[in-house]
Write a structure and sequence with these properties.
Chain lengths: ~190, ~525
């Protein structure tokens, strides 16, 4: 499956096509509706699930330990308050875990010759399209979890500011690197 | 008159400047003024410290004095060191700057990469005829270089030379002048003055646009004291404001009268400050055009000069507040890339050119000069969906006001209850106007967006300059076949909410197609 994914964008060569500027009918133009989306790596789903569980478990156990430790006994009021906090955090953790599972399944990306699109979101679905000619530089971000699982997060920087950095999480490392190579090789990348 | 000194000053002598040199000692004045400015802007932290340590200082006078003297001498020494360790040179059409006392920085800027040249002349430089030159590049490796003391005419020559580099190195296809004519820095093509602003214009601008934030930034820590002083002042004159404003035993008309007088006084003071700030920023405003560059010069104490090449222009905003609409004035803003390296307080000077409070015919003339084929005012705008009204008015505003009304009835607060209804009507009018104003249109070259409440703002940008496109749909929007679109430009993001999803899709497809097929640089 990895080779099928990489074949799509590794070998697009843009040889010396003569410049043409025929006017096109709108129906002939490429449309976002016809994109071939592919999902994030399955191991990414598993890692985020585990990570969410881990975070919740750590927070809860810290709270429980601080509640029941023998060094500084708490008043019964504080004890109850912390019990409530534990309950709330437990519920939030559960919600976060469920949301992580469902939302991560809704993350897709698609690559065309001239742009990359990323679609995410469960209730508020957002599709971001980044034309490659407006990309200023490319980065691969890998945290410790990503490094362990062989994943990477692709970041494309444009002139739209740091808050609009185009990001695709949960890519297999080889895929991320070949996408990066494809962008770098792209002829019309902005050199400013 | 042919001494070596005058040679450097009157003629751009490249050999002399190829060596490292320090700025004129006049720069020390600039550093001192800067230090004082930083001190004043950080007064929030300093004043409490002073209050707390006041008693301590009074008791141990000698210790306190030595500390203060040490601090002042530290400031003076660091200012001098900053001046001493700043060196620059101009070599091979590059400018090198070495600076920094403890951590040294070396900046190398080739002239061809310099996007903006800004000249800034603070008031204390005027008698010596010096000025401050700021160069910056754009792009992902944004660099800034500021030389704080150069002779004014030398700075002008340098600026012309730097900007001339761009003209001779334009990309093919966009150049419609013979590229083999290097610009002689001595002979400059005459600048054409496009617009000037007079004092009445600036007064109008001050009234309509609250530039009060310039002052508010510096005054914020004093608000507490101010309110205290105001209360005391009124108390001295026999009027007890707090007593007046307690509601229980005064007739309503009296309370309203006092409240409106106070508000009016307050607004008057704010307006006066705003007018002062407007005059401060835009005194002797001129907007001129030289080749493909637009130059704006203004300023009462500190004179600013901002140059912008037409190709750098990302977005044009034609803005009118409700008061602007009444007075038939327009504020035009030309926006460039909006990534700022230093977040200074007076951000108005940064990268955009604002033409304040112009008349409609002046505005049309400027717009046609900048974007000749634009149809900002003539194209017909398509409206956003009425679901916007449903969501904001029906789902948010009305239930909120209903709950407030119930709360006030139950809590028995008749005065607040009477306030809810007019507030509700006013906010509903705002929502309706917001929906009514929001419109979008696009033609071959440009995308237009119209927004506003009672005033109206028009945004116009060349479609191919878009950096990124967002297409957003929530469950609610999907059910009604609607979507929201964002255009991310280098100058900021423009959004169109609640439009038909097919129209939104075709708009994004069309924008992406134009970005990718034109292959024109966005700057």
């Amino acid at each position: 499956m990895a080779s099928r994914e990489t074949a799509d964008y590794k070998n697009t060569s843009q040889e010396n096509t003569p410049f043409s500027n025929k006017s096109l009918v709108v129906e002939q133009c490429p449309s976002l509706q016809q994109l071939n989306y592919q999902g994030v790596a399955p191991i990414y789903l598993k890692m985020t699930r585990l990570f969410n569980l881990f975070c919740t478990a750590v927070t809860l156990s810290l709270l429980i330990i601080s509640q029941r430790q023998p060094f500084f006994p708490l008043t019964s009021q504080n004890f109850n308050i912390i019990s409530n906090i534990i309950l709330i955090i437990g519920l939030l953790g559960l919600l976060n875990y469920w949301y992580g599972i469902v939302a991560n399944k809704k993350k897709f990306f698609a690559i065309r010759e001239q742009d990359i699109t990323y679609c995410s979101g469960l209730i508020f679905q957002k599709t971001v399209t980044q034309p490659i000619s407006r990309v200023q530089h490319v980065e691969l971000k890998r945290g410790p979890i990503e490094r362990k699982a062989g994943l990477a997060c692709l970041q494309l920087f444009s002139a739209g500011g740091a808050s609009h950095t185009f990001e695709i999480p949960g890519l297999l490392l080889e895929n991320a690197e070949s996408i990066r190579q494809f962008i770098v090789d792209h002829k019309t990348i902005s050199s400013n | 008159m042919d001494t070596a000194e005058t040679k450097v000053l009157n003629v751009y002598d490249k050999n002399a400047l190829a060596h490292w040199q320090r700025m004129s000692p006049i720069a020390i004045i600039y550093f001192i003024a800067n230090f004082i400015k930083v001190l004043l802007s950080n007064i929030v932290i300093l004043l409490p410290a002073l209050y707390l340590s006041y008693d301590f200082i009074m008791e141990n006078l000698i210790l306190g004095l030595t500390v203060i003297i040490l601090l002042i001498s530290f400031a003076v020494i660091s200012t001098f060191l900053r001046f001493y360790f700043f060196q620059y040179r101009l070599k091979n059409d590059h400018i090198d700057i070495r600076s920094g006392v403890i951590s040294k920085t070396h900046i190398n800027l080739p002239f061809t990469r310099i996007q903006n040249v800004k000249l800034e002349q603070p008031i204390y430089y005027r008698w010596f005829n010096y000025t401050c030159l700021q160069l910056d590049t754009a792009g992902s490796a944004k660099q800034e270089a500021k030389i704080v003391a150069l002779k004014a005419d030398f700075a002008e020559q340098l600026k012309t030379e730097i900007l001339a580099q761009h003209l001779s190195k334009k990309e093919p296809g966009t150049c419609n002048k013979p590229a083999d004519q290097p610009l002689d820095p001595q002979k400059s093509v005459a600048e054409e003055v496009l617009n000037t602003r007079s004092i009445p214009d600036l007064i109008i601008h001050g009234l309509t646009n609250n530039r009060i934030w310039i002052f508010l930034g510096g005054l914020a820590p004093f608000f507490d004291d101010f309110s205290h002083y105001i209360l005391q002042f009124f108390q001295k004159t026999g009027v007890d404001i707090e007593h007046l404003l307690t509601i229980t035993d005064k007739p309503i008309w009296q309370i309203i009268l006092y409240a409106s007088t106070l508000t009016f006084l307050f607004l008057l003071i704010i307006s006066l400050c705003s007018i002062a700030a407007s005059i401060l920023t835009f005194y002797r405003y001129t907007l001129s055009k030289l080749e493909d560059r637009y130059i704006r010069r203004s300023g009462l104490f500190t004179k600013h000069e901002v140059t912008m090449r037409l190709s750098r222009l990302q977005l044009v905003i034609r803005q009118q507040d409700w008061l602007d609409v009444l007075l038939k004035r327009i504020n035009l803003t030309f926006e460039q890339i909006n990534v700022s390296v230093n977040h200074n307080q007076m951000n108005a000077q940064n990268n955009k050119i604002i033409v304040p409070s112009i008349k409609p015919n002046e505005c049309t003339k400027l717009l046609n000069d900048i974007y000749p084929e634009n149809q900002m005012m003539t194209i017909s705008y398509q409206a956003i969906s009425k679901q916007f009204l449903l969501k904001n008015w029906g789902l948010i505003l009305t239930p909120l006001c209903a709950t407030l009304t119930i709360l006030f009835i139950v809590g028995n607060k008749p005065l607040l209850l009477t306030a809810v209804l007019p507030l509700y009507v006013f906010l509903s009018a705002l929502v309706v106007m917001r929906w009514y104003r929001w419109g979008y249109a696009s033609d071959e070259n440009y995308t237009y967006i119209r927004k506003g409440f009672f005033g109206v703002d028009y945004y116009c940008f060349p479609t191919y300059k878009t950096q990124q496109v967002h297409y957003k749909q929530s469950w609610f929007l999907k059910r009604h076949q609607l979507c929201s679109i964002n255009f991310v430009l280098a100058a900021g993001t423009q959004s169109i909410p609640y439009i038909n999803e097919n129209k939104g899709l075709s708009l994004t497809d069309d924008t992406i197609f134009k970005v990718e097929s034109t292959k024109k640089s966005w700057m």
